[in-house]
């Protein structure tokens, strides 16, 4: 049986002599030392040292293979998660992206991408916010997180979340780096929940919560100029009692449609109760305009309703008040008073709240 040390040396030499290129210049150096060693008598210590170096290089190669596998796994996982790693050198603005970042913006993987081209994908508002927080991060050295809307060429609009950190050297920023992640589905889910929280499920109009919030905003601005209109359906209870709630629901939906058409200039149209509706108009609304809208709405409400094959008529009582420097409660009370005055007046469907006049 041969000497194991000799066999190790011979195997290493055979690897080089067969023309197989070992990875790394260190192994070439090692093979050179092996050839030199074989030209002289072999000592046990020399063979042991050579074997240790071979084992060390083998360990490095295995570690490199492991790192490469891990990098490949990360690339695949991040792409599957619709996220990517990015780096931007300063001040050259040279970009380095992982595959996931290329995919987010619709660029070919591995291609050279100029930051100026990437910025064209951002919506105007998102680009403004990105430039502002990015400049602040570079100046202060702090990172930032930002949700932005992008519209890559040939790709549907999407939302991304950008997380960034700043690397500094001797007090100077040298690069930005971080992660970009597709959050389009997350935004859609949030928008859906927000819509349900702010809109009436039956008619699709704003609900009472959104109406109250907007009314408070209008009153916070102060001063005259806008108008609040309240509408109540006449004869709706009779529809529910005689034709059923299903027909009543169809009636509400149809009236909401007519209301939206007539009051399309309103800033907000809402269903605030069972058969109660409201419309908020902006500062450009004057008395003549609001009365014209109210009259047209009254006429539209009295047009025949055809719901589930049943034809019937309803009416609408309308009251309105112009905004002044007052609380939302006070403004609503004035419009509500006008509404009930319209209901009480024989043959009247429109009534203006209080004696306050809109501005000239």
UniProtKB/TrEMBL annotation:
Coiled-coil annotated spans: none
GGDEF domain mapped to chain residues = 224-356
Which Pfam family name is an example for this entry?
GGDEF
Q: Please provide the record's keywords in A-Z order.
A: Plasmid
The record ties this protein, via InterPro entries, to: Biofilm_reg_signaling, GGDEF_dom, Nucleotide_cyclase, PAC, PAS-assoc_C, PAS-like_dom_sf, Rev_trsase/Diguanyl_cyclase
- Which superkingdom is the protein from? Bacteria
The PAC domain extends over: 144-195
What name goes with this protein? Diguanylate cyclase
- What is the organism of origin for this protein? Rhizobium jaguaris
């Amino acid at each position: 049986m041969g000497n194991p040390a000799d066999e190790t040396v011979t195997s290493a030499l055979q690897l080089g002599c067969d023309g197989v290129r070992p990875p790394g210049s260190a192994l070439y150096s090692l093979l050179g030392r092996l050839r030199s060693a074989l030209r002289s008598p072999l000592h046990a210590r020399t063979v042991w040292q050579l074997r240790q170096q071979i084992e060390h290089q083998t360990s490095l190669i295995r570690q490199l293979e492991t790192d490469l596998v891990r990098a490949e796994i990360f690339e695949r996982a991040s792409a599957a998660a619709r996220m990517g790693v990015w780096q931007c050198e300063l001040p050259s603005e040279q970009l380095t992206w992982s595959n996931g970042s290329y995919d987010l913006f619709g660029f070919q993987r591995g291609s050279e991408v100029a930051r100026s081209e990437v910025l064209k994908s951002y919506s105007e508002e998102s680009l403004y916010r990105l430039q502002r927080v990015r400049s602040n991060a570079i100046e202060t050295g702090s990172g930032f997180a930002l949700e932005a809307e992008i519209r890559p060429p040939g790709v549907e609009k999407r939302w991304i979340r950008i997380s960034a950190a700043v690397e500094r050297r001797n007090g100077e920023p040298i690069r930005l780096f971080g992660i970009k992640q597709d959050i389009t589905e997350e935004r859609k889910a949030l928008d859906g929940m927000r819509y349900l929280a702010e809109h009436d499920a039956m008619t699709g109009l704003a609900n009472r919560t959104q109406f109250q919030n907007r009314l408070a905003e209008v009153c916070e601005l102060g001063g005259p100029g806008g108008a609040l209109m309240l509408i109540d359906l006449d004869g709706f209870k009779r529809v529910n009692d005689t034709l059923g709630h299903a027909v009543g629901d169809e009636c509400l939906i149809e009236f909401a449609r007519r209301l939206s058409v007539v009051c399309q200039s309103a800033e907000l149209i809402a269903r605030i109760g069972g058969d109660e509706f409201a419309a908020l108009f902006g500062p450009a609304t004057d008395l003549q305009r609001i009365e014209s809208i109210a009259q047209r709405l009254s006429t539209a409400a009295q047009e025949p309703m055809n719901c589930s094959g049943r034809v019937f008529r309803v009416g609408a009582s309308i009251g309105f008040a112009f905004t002044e420097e007052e609380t939302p409660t006070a403004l609503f009370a004035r419009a509500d008073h006008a509404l009930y005055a319209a209901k009480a007046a024989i043959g009247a469907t429109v009534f203006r709240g209080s004696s306050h006049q809109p501005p000239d």
